[in-house]
Amino acid sequence: MELLWWGLIIVLFVLSFVGIIYPLIPSIVTIWGGFIVYQFLINPNELSLWFWISMVVLSAVLIGSDIIANSYFVKRYGGSKTSERLAAIATIVGSFIFPPFGIILVPFLSVFVTEFILQKDGIKAIKIGFATIIGFLGGSIAKVLIQLIMIVWFILAVII
User: For residue 98, which of 74, 102, 126, 132 is within the disulfide window of CB 3.0 to 4.6 Å?
Assistant: First the structure.
């Protein structure tokens, strides 16, 4: 039975990375799902309080990385608050339209059109549109690294 639980943990960890491309799969929830399966179905005494506190902190950083990266780059290139919000929504919608390319194209086009309408400057609108791509990629790289840290930390906590 323990082998089944380990299989589920691995599936949950893999799904956490799928969630980077398909934002409707909540990466943080799937990683925590793996931790919870281990804690309650395999070994309730293995993971320390220090592990759990660290995972809460890393989870907060993981959630914040997406928001901060998108917001930072859109603002840096002169984008509006509307474009910041629209980029987040368009990322989710884009994951269903022409995956995985839609996750980049839909936010870009949405922000480009919005900024073109608001600012009437095509060059600036293109720059802000590209800023959403940079923000998405930056946030995604940060998420991958943080998730890897969390999973490796979990593995070390279980082994050591």
Answer: 102
Instruction: 62-65: list long-range contacts, CB under 8 Å, 24+ apart.
Output: 62/27, 62/28, 62/142, 62/143, 62/146, 62/147, 62/150, 63/28, 65/139, 65/142, 65/143, 65/146
- Model pLDDT for residues 28-47, shown as the tens digit of each residue: 999 999 999 999 999 999 99
Question: Among residues 11, 49, 48, 43, which one has the least CA distance to residue 30?
Answer: 11
Q: 69 and 146 in contact (C-beta within 8 Å)?
A: no
Residue type, 122: G
Question: Are the CB atoms for 111 and 128 separated by under 8 Å?
Answer: yes
pLDDT of residue 136: 84
Share of the chain above pLDDT 70, in %: 99
Main-chain phi, psi angles of 53, to 5 degrees:
-65, -45
- SS3 for 23? coil
- Distance from C-alpha of 54 to C-alpha of 56, rounded to nearest angstrom: 5
Structure-token match 């793996």, residue found:
34
